[in-house]
Structures are given as C-alpha cells and as structure tokens.
C-alpha cells in the first residue's frame, strides 16, 4: 500500500464498514505532497555478490574485528553498534584513539586525532538505500553517506577503513591502508579458511572480497516490520488513532516531499542551513560545496539520535522545530543564505502545535527486532568491537 495525503486511512477522512474497518473515501491525492509505503520483506543483492550465510557470518566477524584499523583499536562496530541501531549516540563519532562505549566514549590522551566529520548514519535497512516510491532500487548503485560519495554497500564498507579519523590513524598512509589490512588478514589461518569457504576461490582474501563480505553482513541488518509497516500492509489496528492523525499531519506539512517512499527518503541532496558542529573546527560545505546533504531515512530514529549531518539536534522535537523556524528566524548556519535554501524545505510548513502528533507517528517507524548478534571472539584474537570497554 502507498499512502499520500488524500488516501490516508484515518477517521477524519474516512468512513467505517460494519466490521469497524476504516475505509478510504477517496483515492485521489495531491501529487506534490509525496507518499509513504511499507518496506519489502526481503532485500536484493548485486548480481556479482549474491548473499550467502557464509559471507554474512564472515562479514560479521570482520565488522567486529579491530584488525581492520590502523592501530588495531577500533572496529566498524565502534561507531555502528547494535545497541544504538548500528548508529551512534554521539554528535560526532570517536574512532581512532578512542576508548569507551556510547556516551562514555572519549579520546585517549594525548590525542591528535579529530572527531569524525559528520554524524554516524545508521546501517539498519541500508540495503534499501535508493529505493523509490514504487519500490524500485539497484543495490549496486545505492547512494551512501551524507554526501553520497559512495555507491553500494560494497563500496561504502571500504571507505571508513581508509579515513584517518575513523579507522586508519596516522601511522599508515591512505594509499597503503588496504594493502596493509589484506596482508594482516592473509596472515591469520582462520580468515584464510573463512574467505575460501565464503568465496570458493584460491587466494580469496582480496580487497574486493573484503568489501563483499562486509556488505553482505550489513545488507542483512533489516528492521522492516515496524508498526507502520504492518499498517501499510493492511492492518488498520497497528496504529492508534493519534498516530494516524500524526501521519496525516506529516503529509499535510509537506514532509513527505523529501521523506517519501518505503525508506521515507528521496535520497536526494537538499540545502537546509543546519548548524555545523563546532567540534570539527571546519565549515562543512556538503556536496560539491553547495551545503546540501542527502535526505536521511526517518526509520528507527529512536536508535539514531542525535540528528542531522552535524548531530546538533538532539531530539525529534528539535528537528521539527527547526523546520518551523525556517519561516522567520535566522538560519543556524551563517554560511548559508536564505536564498540558498531548498525549495521543498521552504514549502514545508510544520506548525508547533502539531509537533507532538507528528513525533507519535515517527515513533511508529521504529522496529527493534533486528540482528543484534555479537561474536564471542574474532579470528585476530583482538578485543571484540575494539577498545570499547
């Protein structure tokens, strides 16, 4: 089911049959307000990387193994932990030279490593990145990161390994990093066995297969059965009346012009004028120096606070108030002028009185029944997850 403003199944615009099922009055909808829909129950994989259980489990071990970092102190899971919906509870993540978990994570002193440049995007449902309102997507061409600099989970998975502040550190040059990691993996007999089993190749430990294994694991991190999904698949009782009204207000406000489709994202860049994070000490000019950033998904927001590319908005109420303030108040980012703002952002009208109901609706997009399994040990023998205890 795809729902736009004119077909929302709520009491204010519907009638009931004898069994108290809510029936839409009209199937007409304003074309410019966008629409929302349920996620597919399964996801596709690229033709050159079909999903297998062997790849998933190899990818899981690699995801939690700090052997992939320059100083062997940080893993993918350090900033994408299942406790936080495979996202991060900090405004900006602490990767290399970090210690601790969640809000207690801090740099080990002395420190010359910067914070990560942007808020850590969640990995739940990243398998569906790029999906349109009709459910079409190409996993080999899926937009990744706030600036869409990578296409596909396979390409995305390799990027943090090479970044100084995320996993590489200062001791290894960026152009040497992957060669160093591959040599490390080849020196571990258990990884040699697992790569050979997963890819059925001689000399299976390669950069390409490393990316494929990590992507296969991340592609399985699905949270696609929220109460919202149940409602959209035909169960009117999955949402309360108040939550349905919140959906109506979400659509009426114009939020679905950008936050549309099954992932509630158009996966396009938009200029909003969100404040930079002072911890970086730089001006973040976004995609092609335009101050635009990709629309994030609205799914599983309970796990991924704080919000926006800079992590400067701590609550959903603050996010919605930000949109209300676009009409009248000065922009939080002094580097962005009003005339640079995205047209769709300007057209979005969030009334302060409606914010609580819209938040109620957004909370129906949470699904906590996702894969949280953490290995008891990793083949390198290093601490699972990195220096997070």
Walk me through the structure.
With 389 residues, the chain is mainly alpha-helical. The strands form five sheets. It has a two-stranded antiparallel sheet. Mean pLDDT is 92; it is low at 6-31. The longest helix is centred in the middle third of the chain and has 13 residues, at 174-186. The protein contains 13 helices and ten strands. Helices cover 29% and strands 7% of the residues. The chain has helices spanning 53-64, 76-79, 153-162, 164-168, 174-186, 189-199, 207-219, 227-232, 241-252, 301-304, 316-325, 343-347, 355-362; strands spanning 2-4, 14-16, 22-24, 35-37, 98-99, 106-107, 143-144, 150-151, 269-271, 292-294. α1 (53-64) runs antiparallel to α6 and α1 (53-64) crosses α7. It has two domains: 2-42 and 224-365, Orthogonal Bundle (Cytochrome Bc1 Complex, Chain D, domain 2), CATH 1.10.760.10; 53-219, Orthogonal Bundle (Cytochrome Bc1 Complex, Chain D, domain 2), CATH 1.10.760.10.
Short description:
By secondary structure, the protein is mainly alpha-helical.
Record field, number of beta strands: 10
Provide the number of structural domains.
2
Backbone shape: globular
Q: Mean of the pLDDT scores?
A: 92
The amount of beta strand, in percent, is 5-15%
CATH class of the largest domain: Mainly Alpha
Summarize the topology.
Blueprint: E1 2-4, E2 14-16, E3 22-24, E4 35-37, H1 53-64, H2 76-79, E5 98-99, E6 106-107, E7 143-144, E8 150-151, H3 153-162, H4 164-168, H5 174-186, H6 189-199, H7 207-219, H8 227-232, H9 241-252, E9 269-271, E10 292-294, H10 301-304, H11 316-325, H12 343-347, H13 355-362
Antiparallel strand pairs: 1-4, 2-3, 5-6, 7-8, 9-10
Helix pairs in contact: 1-6, 1-7, 3-7, 9-13
